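Why does residue order matter? Because the sequence determines the fold. Keep that principle in mind as you read this record.
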Amino acid sequence: MRVFSLPKARHIAWAIMMVMISLPGSAGAATGFALSNGTVISGNMLLAMGGEAAQADGQAVDDAVDQDLVAKDPVSYLTALDTIRAYFLAGQSAYQHNDLDAAGEMFVAPMTEVYVNLEPALLAQGVPTFGNAMIDASDNAYLPESRAETEAAITSVFDALTVAEKSLPKGGRSKESIQVEVLADLLTRAATQYNAAFEEGSSSRTWLNGYGFYKAAQHRASIALPLISQQKGDAHTALLKAMELLNQAYKSPTLPAIAPIKQEDVINAAKHASKLASEL
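Structure:
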């Protein structure tokens, strides 16, 4: 059994407290929370801290995962995996640019609304869980002397995501339609974040969040697009166009002073691609 110290619990308090609040009754607040592998965080400790750590700023899209749906729907399951991938790609980029606070936020952001609802599906599929690696990445990211540990945790999460996507729930969908629908969703999220990043009151986190979804879309496109390159011409072309616009939009994980591509062009291309993808 693994019990967190106060500093570690502080970085993930917001995530665990939200999970405890969602449990029937209030016992969770007193006893704490345990991941499937036995990781325990004291509930009293978290309450005493008052939820000091906060969720990553800048989310313009809803990342929430339905626990029942993700267990049986391959699109929801793969989307959940790619959402975690997006945050970790964003966090990895921030970490490489020595923005440790942004990195830590990105690493912990998908814990409460994504991972905790995904973990039962991972167990049902016989897939190794990776909550501890996510927590380790977030905690160590704040410590300059823990670079090796942070990079090892990031690699562990990416490796676990690769393993997990090989065991999709059976949902009666073709491989092509699953991959393309997930890609279209990622493109739409990246485009939505792009638009939001240039609105009044937005922060650099909005851009970084979108950059992560763009990088996750790149990964998914490398798998999805070859599957439809021959027989699904219109959808393939639309997805390629949306991807190319995002390539021009997200040149860097750092928010530019001026939008490099018209916002309406980016979101319209993503929506058009998504419409055609849904018809496959």
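Confidence is low (pLDDT under 50) at residues 1-34, 40-55.
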